[in-house]
C-alpha cells in the first residue's frame, strides 16, 4: 500500500504539530516507514524515513520519491527540502511514539482499502463504503447519480437545512432526494460544472468547500462523489482517498442490478411510442387506458437553451415528477423533455393552466429552458396530436417572441395555420391582380397601400381604429382607402374575398417575422415582405 507525504502528514495526531515542506510529490509513492540510521549512505526511493534533528546523517544520495520525517527542526533540513518531502513534528516526541503513529497511518489506509474491496465483493453497498471511509477522512461525503439523486451520504450537518447538494441531514435514509431545481441555476452559473472532468476538482458553494470526483467510465457519466468541509479546510491528502473511493463507487454503480419495471415506466414507454408513432404492446395499451380515467393532462415540451444543457435530462424529468405530482416526464430524442402533467388536481377548473404556469415558470427560468404547452389531453391515446401542439407552440413561440419562457399552443395556432395554408406554393402565387397593383404602387411611394390594407382588415374595416393604428387623420385614411379600392378592384364586402386577402397578407407578415428571427432576407427582385 503506497501513500503520499500529504496523507501521512494529515493522518498524524494534531498534538504532533506536523508540518510538510520540501519537494513533495502529489502521487502516492511511499511504502511502510523505516528508521533512518545516522550512517545511512542513502535514502531509498519510495520510502519514508523517521529520524530526529540531532541524528541527521550526511548523505550523498537520495532515491527518487523518498521522504523524511524528522522529530524537531534544524537548518540542516534545508538541504533535504530541496530534494525530497520533509515532515517535521514536535521535538518533544520520542522515536517510538512517532514511528508507531506513522505505522498506524499506513495500517489505517491499508485496512480501509481492504474494507472497500470486501464491501464490493459482498454486493457493493455505496452507503457502507462511505461509512467505512469516515475512518480516513473527517469530511462529510455524498454520492449523487447522473440524475442528481442522492444515493448515499455520511456526516451531513444537522444544523444545515440543506447541504450544497440539496440533501438534508440523514440523507442516507432518504435515498432518491435530489438537488432542488431552485439551486441548480446558482450551482451551474457559479461554477460551470464540467461532467467530463476526470481528476478531483475543488468547488466552493454557498461558502462551503467541496472536493469532487466525477464517476466516469467508457459508458459515460454516472454521477459524482463529493467531500464536504463544514468546519475545516480541505486537505490535499483527501485527493487520494477521493480517487480510490470514486473508483470503488463507480464499480458499484456499474455492477448489473435487476430493476423491476413499474406501471409508471410502462406508461412512459407507451407515451414515448405514441409520440414516435411506434406500435404499442398489450401492457402499453392497458397503461394508457388506465391513465385515461385518471384525470386531465396537458403536454409540455421543454427544451434547454444554454447552460442547462449541462444538466442530465433524466434529472429534469425526475425533478418535474417530484415537484408537480401527477407528472409523467421522459427524454425526447436526447435533446428535450416531454411531460404530460395532470392539471385537474392543481386548482379549480378555470384556473388550472394559470396555476401550472405559476409552477413551471420559475423552473424554466432557473434552468434557462423554454417550453410549449398543448390544449387539455383527455384521452392519452391522442398523445401524439397534443405533443405536436406543444412542439408547434415551442417552435413558433421561440421564433416570434424572444421574451417568454412558456408558450401556449392557442396563442400560435393561427401562425401555424397560416404557414401551412399555402402548401408547397409560394404565397405570392395566391396574389390577386389588384394586390399585385398595390405592391407595385408601394415600390415607388413612401405611403404603403399594402400596410394600410392590412391594418384596415385587422381592425374589421373600422376606419376610426385603423386611423389610430396608423397615426393618421380619419379623413386622410378615407381618401387613401378610396385610391386603394380603385387599384384593388375587389369587393371587400364579400366575406370570401376579404378572408382571402387577409390570409395572404397575414401569411406574408408571418413569413417576414420568421425570416427576421432566423436572420433571413428577401431575395433581390422578389416582392417585398411586410
**Strand percent estimate:** 15-25%
Protein structure class = alpha/beta
The CATH homologous superfamily of the largest domain: Reverse transcriptase/Diguanylate cyclase domain
Low-confidence stretches: 158-176, 520-530
Shape: elongated
- Integer tally of domains: 4
Count of beta strands? 17
Proportion of helical residues: 40-55%
Return Rg in Å. 35 Å
**With helices defined by DSSP (H or I, 4 residues minimum), what is the helix count?**
17
Spatial strand arrangement across the major sheet:
1-7-6-4-2
Distance between the termini: 77 Å
User: What characterizes the major β-sheet?
Assistant: 5 strands, mixed
Quick one: CATH class of the largest domain?
A: Alpha Beta
Domain PucR C-terminal helix-turn-helix: 450-507
Protein name: PucR C-terminal helix-turn-helix domain-containing protein
InterPro entries: CdaR-like_regulators (IPR051448), PucR_C-HTH_dom (IPR025736), PucR_C-HTH_sf (IPR042070)
Give a quick set of tags describing it.
single chain, 530 residues, alpha/beta, Beta-Lactamase, Alpha-Beta Plaits, 4 domains, five-stranded mixed β-sheet, five-stranded antiparallel β-sheet, 17 helices, disordered C terminus, PucR C-terminal helix-turn-helix domain-containing protein, PucR_C-HTH_dom
Amino acid at each position: 500500500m503506497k501513500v503520499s507525504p500529504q496523507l501521512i502528514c494529515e493522518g498524524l495526531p494534531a498534538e504532533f504539530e506536523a508540518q510538510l515542506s520540501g519537494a513533495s510529490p502529489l502521487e502516492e509513492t511511499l511504502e511502510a516507514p523505516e528508521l533512518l540510521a545516522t550512517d545511512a549512505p542513502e535514502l531509498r526511493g519510495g520510502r519514508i524515513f523517521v529520524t530526529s534533528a540531532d541524528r541527521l546523517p550526511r548523505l550523498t544520495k537520495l532515491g527518487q520519491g523518498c521522504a523524511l520525517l524528522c522529530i524537531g527542526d534544524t537548518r540542516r533540513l534545508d538541504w533535504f527540502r530541496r530534494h525530497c518531502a520533509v515532515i517535521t513534528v514536535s521535538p518533544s516526541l520520542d522515536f517510538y511514539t512517532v514511528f508507531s503513529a506513522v505505522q498506524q497511518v499506513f495500517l489505517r489506509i491499508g485496512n480501509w482499502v481492504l474494507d472497500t474491496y470486501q464491501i464490493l465483493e459482498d454486493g457493493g453497498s455505496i452507503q457502507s463504503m462511505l461509512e467505512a471511509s469516515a475512518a480516513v477522512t473527517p469530511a462529510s461525503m455524498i454520492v449523487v447519480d447522473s440524475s442528481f439523486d442522492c444515493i448515499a451520504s455520511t456526516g451531513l450537518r444537522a444544523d444545515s437545512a440543506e447541504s450544497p447538494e440539496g440533501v438534508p441531514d440523514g440523507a442516507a435514509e432518504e435515498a432518491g432526494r435530489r438537488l432542488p431545481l431552485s439551486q441548480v441555476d446558482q450551482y451551474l452559473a457559479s461554477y460551470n460544472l464540467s461532467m467530463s472532468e476526470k481528476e478531483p476538482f475543488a468547488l466552493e458553494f454557498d461558502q462551503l468547500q467541496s472536493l469532487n470526483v466525477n464517476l466516469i467510465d467508457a459508458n459515460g457519466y454516472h454521477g459524482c462523489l463529493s467531500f464536504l468541509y463544514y468546519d475545516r479546510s480541505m486537505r490535499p491528502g483527501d485527493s487520494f482517498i477521493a480517487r480510490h473511493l470514486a473508483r470503488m463507487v463507480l464499480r458499484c454503480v456499474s455492477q448489473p442490478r435487476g430493476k423491476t419495471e413499474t406501471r409508471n415506466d410502462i406508461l412512459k414507454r407507451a407515451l414515448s411510442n405514441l409520440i414516435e408513432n411506434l406500435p404499442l404492446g398489450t401492457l402499453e395499451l392497458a397503461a394508457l387506458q388506465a391513465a385515461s380515467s385518471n384525470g386531465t393532462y396537458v403536454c409540455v415540451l421543454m427544451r434547454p437553451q444554454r447552460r442547462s444543457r449541462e444538466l442530465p435530462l433524466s434529472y429534469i424529468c425526475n425533478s418535474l415528477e417530484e415537484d408537480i405530482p401527477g407528472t409523467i416526464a421522459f427524454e425526447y430524442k436526447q435533446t428535450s423533455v416531454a411531460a404530460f402533467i395532470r392539471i385537474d388536481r392543481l386548482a379549480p377548473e378555470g384556473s388550472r393552466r394559470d396555476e401550472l404556469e405559476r409552477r413551471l415558470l420559475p423552473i424554466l427560468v432557473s434552468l434557462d429552458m423554454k417550453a410549449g404547452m398543448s390544449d387539455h389531453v383527455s384521452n392519452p391515446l391522442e398523445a401524439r396530436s397534443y405533443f405536436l401542439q406543444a412542439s408547434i407552440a415551442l417552435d413558433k413561440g421561440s421564433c416570434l417572441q424572444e421574451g417568454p419562457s412558456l408558450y401556449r399552443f392557442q396563442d400560435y395556432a393561427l401562425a401555424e395555420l397560416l404557414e401551412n395554408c399555402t402548401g408547397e406554393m409560394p404565397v405570392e402565387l395566391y396574389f390577386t391582380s389588384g394586390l399585385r397593383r398595390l405592391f407595385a404602387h408601394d415600390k415607388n411611394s413612401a405611403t404603403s397601400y399594402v400596410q394600410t390594407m392590412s391594418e384596415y382588415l385587422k381592425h374589421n374595416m373600422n376606419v376610426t381604429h385603423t386611423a389610430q393604428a396608423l397615426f393618421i387623420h380619419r379623413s386622410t385614411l378615407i381618401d387613401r382607402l378610396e385610391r386603394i379600392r380603385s387599384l384593388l378592384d375587389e369587393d371587400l364586402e364579400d366575406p370570401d374575398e376579404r378572408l382571402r386577402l387577409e390570409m395572404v397578407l397575414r401569411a406574408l407578415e408571418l413569413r417576414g417575422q420568421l425570416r427576421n428571427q432566423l436572420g433571413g432576407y428577401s431575395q433581390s427582385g422578389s416582392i417585398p415582405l411586410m
